[in-house]
Amino acid sequence: MTPTLENLSEAVAAELRAALAYSGTSYGQLASVLGVPVMWVSRRCRGVVDLSVNDLAAMCEAADLDLVTVLTSAIGASK
């Protein structure tokens, strides 16, 4: 089954939250590295605002997460 865009967006946000938690990176730490408000990070991680590919890549880089792993895990979870 092909994931829908809505399911995929939710899965990417969930996978990002899980990866951040596993790495011990807080929204505050991530926001500080990115130079954005904590609410900016929180809204994207909670799925309130859809993540752009650029935002996801920047967040992964700032948290030292592998972008491909986050995406492939999300795709697998959304099926």
What can you tell me about this protein's structure?
By secondary structure, the chain is mainly α. It has helices at residues 5-23, 27-34, 38-45, 53-62, 67-78. The radius of gyration is 12 Å and the shape is globular. The model has no long low-confidence stretch (mean pLDDT 91).
Task: Label this structure with key terms.
mainly alpha, 72% helix
Summary, kept brief:
This protein is mostly helical and 79 residues long.
Distance separating the two termini: 6 Å
Helix content bin: over 70%
Radius of gyration: 12 Å
> Which spans of ≥5 residues are poorly predicted at pLDDT below 50?
none
The residue-averaged pLDDT reads 91
Q: Would you tell me the structural class of the helices and strands? A: mainly alpha
Element-level helix/strand string: HHHHH
Strand proportion, as a percent range, falls in under 5%
Please tell me what the overall shape is.
Answer: globular
Supply the number of helical segments: 5
Largest sheet data: none
For the secondary structure, the number of strands is 0
